């Protein structure tokens, strides 16, 4: 008796290509990429103020990428994409909230004299020259300057802080962190005046000091158009009681007395 041969089916069921699930997965991935690009562009301008948050976001993106790579199956991939989107959205919201709080609290911290990275302390002798330059740069950032850069050091040719004022002018600042018994003399102004305009292309040249200026120094500043910020005016600038140096007219030709014009 002949027994009919039966075909043995492979126990492994073939998976069908699911166009809908694939479309959903790629759609979620595209949303995540767009959101990631927006986050990167948003945090680019704030990286100098809050670098810790940028580091957190980068770690979050790396973790999400690893999670997506390990996911298996369309359901797992979809859940991983959703988790990635949610994580990026949460990180973005947290960053925006932190930046908003920092922006609102900065003026209050400056007025109270609290020691932070963006506020000058009233006791300038507590700061070394490098910290003094960083503090002046932070004041420029606080008051709306762009492209603020600390360049002081060997070979700086008289410039310690470079920035662009809110109205688009290039400002070059030299910082002098001296003791109370050491005034800024005319030689300091002459060295700065010889490079601030011709070498650094300043529209506004400012010399900020933690002490006072001698009379010859003030006279030289008046003739060369350099704005001098002494200890008193620096404290007013820090506490918000006086305008920023670039908001004042340059010395010379404005009918203002010399002492009130050059030494802002």
TrEMBL record:
<feature type="transmembrane region" description="Helical">
    <location>
        <begin position="21"/>
        <end position="40"/>
    </location>
</feature>
<dbReference type="Pfam" id="PF04471">
    <property type="entry name" value="Mrr_cat"/>
</dbReference>
<keyword id="KW-1133">Transmembrane helix</keyword>
<keyword id="KW-0378">Hydrolase</keyword>
<dbReference type="InterPro" id="IPR011335">
    <property type="entry name" value="Restrct_endonuc-II-like"/>
</dbReference>
<dbReference type="InterPro" id="IPR007560">
    <property type="entry name" value="Restrct_endonuc_IV_Mrr"/>
</dbReference>
<keyword id="KW-0812">Transmembrane</keyword>
<feature type="transmembrane region" description="Helical">
    <location>
        <begin position="52"/>
        <end position="69"/>
    </location>
</feature>
<dbReference type="InterPro" id="IPR052906">
    <property type="entry name" value="Type_IV_Methyl-Rstrct_Enzyme"/>
</dbReference>
<protein>
    <submittedName>
        <fullName>Restriction endonuclease</fullName>
    </submittedName>
</protein>
<keyword id="KW-0255">Endonuclease</keyword>
<keyword id="KW-0540">Nuclease</keyword>
<keyword id="KW-0472">Membrane</keyword>
<dbReference type="InterPro" id="IPR011856">
    <property type="entry name" value="tRNA_endonuc-like_dom_sf"/>
</dbReference>
<feature type="domain" description="Restriction endonuclease type IV Mrr">
    <location>
        <begin position="125"/>
        <end position="238"/>
    </location>
</feature>
<dbReference type="GO" id="GO:0004519">
    <property type="term" value="F:endonuclease activity"/>
</dbReference>
């Amino acid at each position: 008796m002949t027994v009919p041969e039966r075909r043995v089916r492979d126990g492994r069921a073939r998976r069908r290509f699911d166009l809908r699930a694939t479309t959903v997965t790629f759609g979620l991935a595209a949303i995540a990429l767009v959101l990631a690009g927006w986050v990167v562009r948003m945090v680019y301008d704030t990286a100098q103020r809050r670098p810790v948050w940028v580091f957190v976001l980068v770690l979050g993106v790396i973790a999400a990428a690893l999670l997506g790579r390990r996911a298996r199956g369309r359901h797992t991939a979809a859940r991983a994409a959703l988790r990635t989107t949610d994580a990026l959205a949460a990180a973005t919201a947290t960053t925006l909230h932190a930046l908003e709080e920092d922006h609102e609290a900065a003026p209050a911290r400056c007025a109270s004299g609290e020691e932070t990275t963006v506020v000058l302390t009233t006791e300038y002798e507590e700061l070394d020259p490098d910290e003094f330059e960083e503090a002046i740069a932070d004041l420029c950032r606080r008051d709306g300057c762009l492209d603020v850069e600390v360049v002081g050091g060997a070979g700086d040719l008289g410039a310690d802080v470079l920035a662009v004022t809110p109205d688009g002018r290039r400002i070059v600042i030299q910082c002098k962190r001296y003791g109370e018994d050491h005034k800024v003399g005319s030689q300091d102004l002459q060295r700065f005046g010889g490079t601030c305009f011709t070498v650094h292309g300043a529209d506004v040249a400012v010399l900020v000091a933690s002490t006072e200026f001698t009379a010859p120094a003030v006279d030289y500043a008046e003739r060369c158009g350099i704005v001098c910020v002494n200890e008193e005016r620096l404290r007013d600038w820090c506490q918000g009681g006086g305008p920023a140096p670039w908001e004042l007219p340059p010395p010379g030709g404005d009918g203002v007395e010399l002492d009130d014009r050059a030494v802002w």
